[in-house]
Design a protein that fits this description.
400 residues; 42% strand; eight-stranded antiparallel barrel
């Protein structure tokens, strides 16, 4: 007999899951749903095996299902969640063939999602090896309800000699295209930004040549259009209430500034400060800077019920161009180092709020008689959109 509170928890979880950010589920104390019926029959969620090629991962799953059915490892009433349905859900749990998760590593959030979305009772991950035409598949079966391994028939190894080699011997050209597809960003962030190049000749130190009188943004482009970022992020849905992650991620950023500064010679300004009757001269300096940079970041994130705090550091390669009021200009490649700290909070599966403060250091970006700077700082307050399906579309496009 199912307890009434279990039924209530299930109904509340289903309703909240559809209306609120998913981590509200945990706040309700419904981390793991009790089964509404005894587990006489299984509903099986198969996790994608690791491979850079999705078709290889799918092929291993198909062979294992066929072999398990032929060996009668399944009961007649057991159900397997369809691959397409599962992939749509996996996308928002940060699970894929390129970023697999073992059944034993499933978070409480993931198990709750499997129960709500699939009514799943068991999760299966498949470890496989392919040598000289022989495919060996080693399944790991987890009871989602109890969060314990299930060592029944489904747990038995499967050895197959009829596996097709084309799924495992991937040509270099295909491997390269698949690798490039993994760099495709899964989200875009746009918002209001503030950018600043600090003039090392007027940094506020005793050795300064100039004193900065004013600084302003001289661009006619709204700040919201100058702060787009394309990045590959992990969705909050794949983590526990409190969690941590570290990974390397590509980060595409387009930087633009039109900065107008007014300076006075430091010696004249100091004299004027001592005696206001002493005049001083001033001049304007206008800098226009454009850059397109790809950084590879080490990203450390801490997850909480109210959002995630992340820290990133990594090198970059890009192209930049600058021109200024001294009629100097330069276009060329550059190396850079990006450091950033940020906060991200999802409203729902797609939309999220983000704040980032970042600094990009360049290898000798700008230097002339009036201005010297090798880094710029950005503060961005914006809204992001998570669209991981674009990666699969990019993969199909590259392989056509």
């Amino acid at each position: 007999m199912v307890w009434r509170k279990e039924q209530a928890c299930h109904k509340i979880l289903q309703l909240v899951f559809s209306l609120l950010p998913f981590h509200a589920l945990l706040l309700l104390g419904c981390q793991t749903l009790p089964p509404l019926d005894p587990i006489a029959c299984k509903t099986i969620v198969i996790l994608p095996p690791e491979s850079i090629d999705e078709r290889t991962s799918d092929y291993v799953i198909q062979l294992w299902i066929k072999a398990a059915r032929d060996r009668k490892y399944f009961k007649s009433c057991d159900k397997i969640v369809s691959s397409d349905h599962a992939k749509n859900v996996f996308t928002f749990l940060n699970i894929s063939h390129a970023d697999p998760v073992e059944a034993s590593e499933l978070s409480a959030n993931m198990r709750s999602v499997f129960q709500v979305q699939f009514k799943g009772t068991h999760a299966v991950s498949l470890d496989y090896s392919y040598n000289f035409g022989k495919l060996t598949i080693k399944p790991l079966v987890l009871n989602i309800i109890s969060n314990k391994p299930d060592r029944g028939l489904l747990h038995k190894h499967v050895v197959m000699r009829e596996a097709e080699s084309e799924y495992f011997e991937i040509p270099f050209s295909r491997w390269l295209k698949l690798s490039l597809a993994q760099l495709v960003p899964t989200s875009v962030v746009g918002g209001f930004s503030e950018q600043d190049f600090e003039n090392e000749y007027a940094s506020g130190g005793d050795d300064d040549i100039y004193h900065e009188l004013s600084s302003e943004n001289a661009s006619s482009i709204p700040p919201v259009l100058s702060s787009f970022r394309f990045e590959k992020i992990l969705h909050r849905k794949g983590f526990n209430l409190f969690d941590v992650s570290f990974r390397f991620v590509p980060y595409f950023n387009f930087r633009f500034t039109n900065q107008l500064n007014t300076y006075a010679p430091k010696s004249e300004w100091d004299a004027h400060q001592t005696d206001p009757t002493i005049p001083f001269t001033s001049f304007d300096y206008n800098l226009k800077f454009y850059a397109s940079v790809l950084n590879i970041l080490g990203d450390l994130a801490f997850y909480t019920p109210i959002g995630s705090l992340f820290f990133s550091l990594g090198p970059g390669l890009g192209i930049y161009h600058y021109e200024d009021s001294l009629n100097e200009n330069y276009t060329g490649p550059m190396l850079s180092l990006l450091t950033r700290i940020g906060y991200r909070a999802f409203f729902n599966d797609r939309w999220y709020f983000q704040f980032i403060a970042e600094n990009q250091s360049y290898n000798g970006a700008i230097e002339n008689e009036s201005f010297k700077s090798s880094s710029d700082s950005y503060a961005i307050l914006g809204i992001g959109f998570f669209y991981p399906e674009i990666q699969r579309a990019a993969t199909r496009s590259l392989l056509e």
